Recover the amino acids of this structure.
């Protein structure tokens, strides 16, 4: 998988730098608290939210169990509607396909709908290497692109920027990419939006090739769906003559009727709206007499680690994700660390379980992501498809400790034998022995209580990192069993 921010350190180191940035923390705190409050109000309006959530979970789980069937059905439907389907096993193959398709049109620039999948594979960089310039048209993505920055949020990629910073970026960079910012630009939202509109309009009107992702693909009809709030996506989907969509294979829903559930839960969970201002759907191609829509449509179905993730019975639930970003907005770790610390285009709690599965846990950053959580469970409570993120985090921590990714052996998925983490394994073996020998455990507890005043507040050696930001909990004056026996009676402290 591509999409790793090259040179990024492990999460604890990157997060430490972010926590020391008061401007970043202020921007994140204001934005996430505002979004989460609006979302809670929008969800409270729906009396059957729990039922919708369960329905979304079941639809996704059913689709994932029968993904092979629905992928074939989707390909047949898209082809019947005039589209062309391509299969990409990984990022390199997907980038090569898209690059070739653009080159075949003879064009040297494309306009893009906001797409996590194309960010995941590093498509913009691949196109640039081939002499093709990709223009982001989503406002937040435009800010990130002009600022030579990286996205830090799934829904609002420029959430780490404030209005003053955005104005400075527009004034400095817009002229290098096309129409410059108006003279005397202020940081009022209306003026910033107008500057972006004027800058992008000329690109929409001359673009011959559009590139998109999709929020959903309907297997029975071959229909693709993009939901957005600005209308820039619809411009990219309807004006260019050629449309190339890069979509993860997990984005399928079986039937048109299934959209009913997600078109209620996604907008409320993401933008706190009752429905998205723009919901664009297209099936195949249009003929030359049509006023809008692509004359040529290519669908690139992207695997890039998804099949491996599907093989893990616990971890596969991450593939239910509909990219609403609700989990980011309630996560206390994300609020303080920001999205860049996750070293991936998928930040926050969902990124902490999705990136290590798509990319593996061999790198330092990916091995650290399952630990980027306090396991408070707030992410699970707001997830519209009920992904138990804490459960998957603990599962992935086990994988990291075991030393490798999950591998299939017959009908089971097992973990590779451990190669490292000797100190942690030794500690776990010692704990297992102690808990299986009650007499030794009780003696150790009594000894620890009697010597508690001499205990350090921080651990040495391998434990130093854990106590670097927290004190060890104080030991009680006597073990619980001794207290119970003294106050309630009973042999060995047990009634």
């Amino acid at each position: 998988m591509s999409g790793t921010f090259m040179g990024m350190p492990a999460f604890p180191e990157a997060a430490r730098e972010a926590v020391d940035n008061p401007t970043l923390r202020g921007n994140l705190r204001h934005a996430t608290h505002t979004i989460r409050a609006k979302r809670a109000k929008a969800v409270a309006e729906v009396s059957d939210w729990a039922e919708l959530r369960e329905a979304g979970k079941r639809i996704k789980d059913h689709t994932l169990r029968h993904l092979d069937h629905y992928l074939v059905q989707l390909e047949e439907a898209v082809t019947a509607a005039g589209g062309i389907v391509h299969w990409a096993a990984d990022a390199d193959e997907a980038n090569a396909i898209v690059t070739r398709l653009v080159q075949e049109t003879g064009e040297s620039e494309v306009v893009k709908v906001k797409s996590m999948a194309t960010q995941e594979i590093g498509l913009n960089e691949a196109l640039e290497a081939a002499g093709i310039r990709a223009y982001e048209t989503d406002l937040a993505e435009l800010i990130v692109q002009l600022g030579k920055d990286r996205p830090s949020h799934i829904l609002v990629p420029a959430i780490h920027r404030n209005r003053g910073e955005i104005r400075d970026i527009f004034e400095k960079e817009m002229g290098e990419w096309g129409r410059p910012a108006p003279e005397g630009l202020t940081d009022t939202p209306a003026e910033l939006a107008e500057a972006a509109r004027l800058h992008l309009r000329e690109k929409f009107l001359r673009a011959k090739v559009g590139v998109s992702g999709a929020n959903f693909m309907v297997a029975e009809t071959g229909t693709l769906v993009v939901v957005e709030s600005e209308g820039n996506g619809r411009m990219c989907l309807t004006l260019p003559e050629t449309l190339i969509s890069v979509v993860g294979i997990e984005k399928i829903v079986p039937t048109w009727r299934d959209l009913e559930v997600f078109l209620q839960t996604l907008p409320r969970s993401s933008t706190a709206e009752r429905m998205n201002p723009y919901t664009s759907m297209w099936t195949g191609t249009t003929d030359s007499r049509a006023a809008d829509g692509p004359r040529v449509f290519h669908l690139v179905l992207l695997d890039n680690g998804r099949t491996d993730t599907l093989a893990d019975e616990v971890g596969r639930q991450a593939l239910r994700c509909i990219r609403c970003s609700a989990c980011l907005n309630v996560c206390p770790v994300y609020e303080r660390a920001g999205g860049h610390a996750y070293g991936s285009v998928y930040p926050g709690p969902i990124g902490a379980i999705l990136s290590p599965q798509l990319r593996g846990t061999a790198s330092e950053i990916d091995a650290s992501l399952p630990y980027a959580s306090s396991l408070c469970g707030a992410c699970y409570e707001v997830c519209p498809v009920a992904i138990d993120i804490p459960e998957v985090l603990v599962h992935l921590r086990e994988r990291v400790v075991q030393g490798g990714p999950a591998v299939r052996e017959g009908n089971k998925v097992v973990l590779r034998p451990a190669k490292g983490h000797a100190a942690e394994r030794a500690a776990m073996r010692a704990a297992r022995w102690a808990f299986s020998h009650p007499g030794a455990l009780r003696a150790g507890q009594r000894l620890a209580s009697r010597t508690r005043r001499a205990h350090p507040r921080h651990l040495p050696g391998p434990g130093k990192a854990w106590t670097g930001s927290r004190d060890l909990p104080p030991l009680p004056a006597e073990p619980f069993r001794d207290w119970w026996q003294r106050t309630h009676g009973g042999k060995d402290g047990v009634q």
Remarks:
- The first helix runs from residue 11 to 19.
- The mean pLDDT is 90.
- The radius of gyration is 26 Å.
- DSSP finds 22 helices and twelve strands in the chain.
